[in-house]
Amino acid sequence: MRSGNVLIVDDEIRIRGLLNRIVTLENYKVYEASDLKSAGRILNKENIEVIVCDVRLPDGNGIEFTRDIKVKFSYIEIILLTAHGNISDGVQAMKYGAFDYITKGEDNDKLIPLIEHAVEKARLQKRVQQLEKQVSNSFGFDNIVGESNVIRDAIALAKKVAPNNTTVLLLGETGTGKELFARAIHVASHRAHKPFMALNCSSFSKDLLESEIFGHKVGAFTGAIRDKRGLIEEANGGTLFLDEIGEMHIDLQAKLLRVLETNEFIKVGGTSTTVANVRIISATNKDLKSDVGEGRFREDLFYRLNVFSMQIPPLRERKKDIPILAKYFMNLFAEKMNKEISGISKEFLHYLENQYWKGNIRELKNTIERAVIMAEHPLLTAEDLPLEIQLAQHEHKPISAFDLASVEKLHIQRVLNYTKGNKSEAAKLLNIGLTTIYRKMDIYGLN
Known about the structure:
The protein is built from 19 helices and 18 strands. With 447 residues, the protein is an alpha/beta fold. It has 4 domains: 5-136, 3-Layer(aba) Sandwich (Rossmann fold); 140-313, P-loop containing nucleotide triphosphate hydrolases (Rossmann fold, 3-Layer(aba) Sandwich); 315-386, Helicase, Ruva Protein, domain 3 (Orthogonal Bundle); 403-447, Orthogonal Bundle (Arc Repressor Mutant, subunit A).
C-alpha cells in the first residue's frame, strides 16, 4: 500500500483541489500551499517527502525554489508542473535537482507513478543521510573520549588539519588510538563521503602487502586468478590509513612515494599506470628519523608523510581520562552483554589509575570488557580485575601473577571478604585449620 507525505504548491485553488483528490485517493497524506512562503512554513514543520510545485507562483519561481530546497532538504524530491513547458526551463529544473518536469493536464496520468518513485527515492536518500550521520557520530571527533589537556590539544590539532588534503603522520605508542584519530580526520574532511580504508603494514609480508595496497593483475603470481583492486584504488577520492608505516619494505616505499607525487601507480604484474586521488594518513610507534639515518626508511618518503605530524599521548599522560574511559567502556560492554552494571567502585578506579597501561587504551578497554564479564553485581569492584592488576597494587612495582605468596595472600583476602570476615568459615572454605588461617593472616598483614 502506498504511503507518504506530499506537498502541493499552486496558487490556483481549483488545481490544488484537483491534485489533492487525485493524490489522496492513492493513500498519500497531502498538504497544500498557495505560495512559496507558506510552503516554506509547512516544510519546516512537517516531514514532507515529495513536493508537487507549479513553476510560476505569486512570490517566486518554482525552478529557483527547487534549487533552494535541494540545498536545505537534499532528500526531498520535487516534481515541477508548468502550463506551458519549454526545453530551457526543463533543463534548468533538472540541473537544480528536480525529480521531473511535466505539463499540467496533459501529463496527469504520469503524476501518481512519478510520486511513487519520488517517495521511494526520497526515503532512500534520507536513510543514506541517517547512516552517514551515524558513521560521523561513531567515528568523528566527538567519539574521542577524554577531557585532559593533552587529548584536547591533540584533537584541536587534528581538527585544524582535517579540512586539508595534506598527508598526516600520527605518532604514538601501541593502543593510543591512532586509527581513531585517522578516522575522525577523514570524517571531518571534504572526503568524508568517500571510502576510508585502513591497513596495518606489519600484518603482511612484502609481496602480500604490495598486492593489498596496489592491487594485482591476473597471472601476476601463483594464485592470482583474477585482477584485484588494491586499497589505494578502493579508497579513490577518500582516505587510506597506513598503520605501522615503519614496517613497510623499502622497495614498496618507492611505489608509495610515486603515488604521493603523481597520484599514479602500477599494479603487481601490470604494465600500465592507474590513477587514484587518495589522501594518505600514516601512523607509527617507531622513530622514523632514526630509521632514515640507518637506511631502513626513505628520507624523501619520510618528508612527504611528515608534512603534518602529531603525537597521540599515552594513557599514563592522561590519567584524568581513565575514569571517563572506564565508564564509557563499562556502558559499552554492559549493553553488548545485556548486563545491568551501573557503576564502578572507588577501589576499582584506584587500581586503574595506578596501573602502568603499557598497551594504553586498547589494554584498558580489554580489561574493562573482562571485568564486565566477571562482574556478578551492578558495581564493578577490584575483584573483577585481572589477578596481575590486583597483585600489582600491593607493591610499588608490578608483581608477577605467578608469585605464590602474593597469590595466596590475595586468595585468602578474597575468601575473607566473601565470608565477611568470619575466619572459621573462611578456614573451612580454604580447607585449612583455624590456627593456620590466623598464622597466614599475621604473615600477610591481613585484617
